Amino acid sequence: MMDWDRIRVFHAVAQAGSFTRAAERLGLSQSAISRQIGALEEDLATSLFHRHARGLVLTEQGEILLHAANEVAKRMASVQTALGDSRDTAAGLLRVNATIGLGTVWLVAQLPDFIERHPDIRVSLIIGDGDVDLSMREADVAIRVARPTQPDLIQRRLMTVHTHIYAAPSYLERHGTPSTFEELDRHRLIAYGDDTAAPVTTLNWVLTAGREDDEALPPREASLMINNVFGMLRAAESGLGLASLPDYLGFSSDTLRRVLDHLEGPNFTAYFVYPEELKTSKRVGVFRDFLLEKVAEQPVW
């Protein structure tokens, strides 16, 4: 009989394409991941991955196992939902995945009201800018800042998020307040550290603002790069420079001021997402309705 824990690790590795990224997603060491995959291959007497210098590629046998693992996970999710929602009231554990910015700032601020209304629901927040696999029940629901591409996920539009440039008064007192995009060239800029890993591809628009039509001008260089938006928020509050931030982050700060107020960066849409197997879940239903209510109450969107 195959070990389900090893199958879960295998699925994470297959999705991530490397032991390193799978280890980060599962919270395990890379060596533990490697041992689990090695043991699974030994149990099955077959190789599941081709190992290359640039990553891992599934073998034909690995593709077969991945398909089977997806099907089993969906069936288990249906059973878990039926068991957990067999009562008239919403109760039990609800695992919620959200990006660092939305999760640590906006969502956490709403949760006291939700928990007060639904004391029988226990909430587990899974915060990170990388997507977790809902089909494998790494979380029950997610707030995504891009439209999901998986066909078996139900999605509900939550809000449109707008972005502007923010700075602390202490920084503006020392360096002045820019009035045009061109003046950004003389300022210290805070950017997302790895643009390819950013939760939203346009997050670093401040580096190219006003230069989009001039291919001869390269992007501006950031004086500080941080690999999550909450860190960018705190850096801006500390007076380290100008940061392009989602308005829900900027408005949450008692310190920051919006600069170049008439110039708005790219906006993006956030979605509430969950597997089709959970469409009848009472926990999911009340949480979805709660989020929609809170979004409607707030003028930031």
Report on the structure:
With 301 residues, the protein is an alpha/beta fold. 38% of the residues lie in helices and 21% in strands. It has 3 domains: 4-82, Arc Repressor Mutant, subunit A; 88-158 and 269-297, Periplasmic binding protein-like II (D-Maltodextrin-Binding Protein, domain 2); 163-266, Periplasmic binding protein-like II (D-Maltodextrin-Binding Protein, domain 2, 3-Layer(aba) Sandwich), CATH 3.40.190. The protein has a 5-stranded mixed β-sheet. A 5-stranded mixed β-sheet has the order 9-8-10-7-11. It is globular.
Largest sheet: 5 strands, mixed
Task: Give the C-level CATH assignment of the largest domain.
Answer: Alpha Beta
CATH superfamily of the largest domain: Periplasmic binding protein-like II
Structural class: alpha/beta
Read across the widest sheet, the strand sequence of neighbours is 4-3-5-12-6
Tell me the series of helices and strands, N- to C-terminal: HHHEEHEHEEEEHEEHEHEEH
Overall body shape? globular
**CATH fold node name of the largest domain:** D-Maltodextrin-Binding Protein, domain 2
Mean pLDDT: 88
As a percent range, the share of helical residues equals 25-40%
Number of folding domains?
A: 3
Q: How many DSSP H or I helices?
A: 9
CATH architectural grouping of the largest domain: 3-Layer(aba) Sandwich
In whole angstroms, the N-to-C terminal distance is 51 Å
> Stretches where pLDDT falls below 50 for ≥5 residues?
none
Question: What is the C-alpha radius of gyration, as a whole number of Å?
Answer: 22 Å
Count all strands and give the number: 12
